[in-house]
Design a protein that fits this description.
The chain is mainly alpha-helical. The protein contains 12 helices and no strands. Helix 3 runs antiparallel to helix 12 and helix 5 crosses helix 8. InterPro entries: ABC_transp_perm/SBD (IPR051204), MetI-like (IPR000515), MetI-like_sf (IPR035906). Pfam families: BPD_transp_1. It is a multi-pass membrane protein. Belongs to the binding-protein-dependent transport system permease family.
Length: 256
């Protein structure tokens, strides 16, 4: 299957929230998971260690840290990936696209924990290092979808705009980018979900997040803490995927 076809297929696959019933399925499942965690904490017989880990304050703190990691890394990767994708889609720079995509593919092929540990060893630990690792890991979907989205624009449309006297910059902003938006948004959506999952590993760089609960549950052999961390991460991923689907639905140009 060609790259444009793969991009369109992925976009279609990721747009399942567009019909009425399934539109509300993800937030309902997310709310059910959060409710299950809260009920479990209330009714379970927790020891002192589990009780300290599963206080409302600690859960909210870890969730807030996780959201900040995901938000910062996603904004950064969009600011890097979209302009780079636009540049590589231009005729004069098209020869650079294959090697750049090869490097991006290689970066995603490396286990995410390996990227985090390598950066931690080279540059230390903390929030910034975790964000850099997340950016490196999530760059490929946005970069690839930006290139594919621009490449699939009908050349006849571009030629017509050029025939009307539009400059290359104006053609890009008023013709190519609007037509590429659906596929680009699908790439951003994939990057968001990748970041939610990979951000759990930021605990190993002392960046916090829900990964702290998961790691503590494993290290201390406390299943309630481990289960709470996993379920809350899943709930957050589902909620963010739903929000991204809503944004994708309303930001895509009408008629596309």
């Amino acid at each position: 299957m060609s790259a444009p076809a793969q991009g369109v297929t992925r976009h279609a696959a990721l747009s399942g929230t567009r019909d009425g019933t399934s539109l509300w399925l993800l937030p309902l499942v997310s709310a059910a998971l959060v409710a299950a965690v809260l009920i479990y904490i209330q009714v379970a017989s927790l020891d002192s260690i589990e009780a300290r880990q599963l206080t409302a304050e600690n859960i909210l703190t870890k969730t807030g840290q996780h959201i900040r990691l995901v938000a910062a890394s996603t904004v950064a990767v969009v600011l890097i990936g979209v302009p780079l994708g636009v540049l590589l889609s231009r005729r004069k720079a098209a020869f650079l696209a294959p090697p750049v995509l090869l490097v991006a593919n290689a970066g995603q092929a490396v286990p995410s924990i390996g990227i985090l540990v390598l950066l931690a060893l080279l540059y230390g630990v903390g929030f910034q290092m975790a964000v850099i690792a997340l950016v490196l890991y999530a760059l490929l979907p946005i970069l690839r979808n930006t290139i594919v989205g621009l490449q699939q624009v009908d050349p006849a449309v571009v030629d017509a705009a050029r025939g009307m006297g539009m400059s290359p910059a104006r053609i890009l902003w008023t013709v190519e980018l609007p037509l590429a938006v659906p596929i680009m948004l699908a790439g951003i959506r994939v990057a968001l979900i990748l970041n939610v999952g990979v951000a759990t590993l930021a605990t190993y760089t002392s960046a916090g997040g829900l990964g702290d609960l998961i790691e503590s549950g494993i290290a201390l052999n406390r299943m309630p803490v481990l289960l709470a961390g996993c379920l809350l991460t899943i709930a957050l991923a589902l909620l963010i995927d739903w929000l991204a689907g809503i944004a994708e639905r309303y930001l895509s140009p009408k008629g596309i």
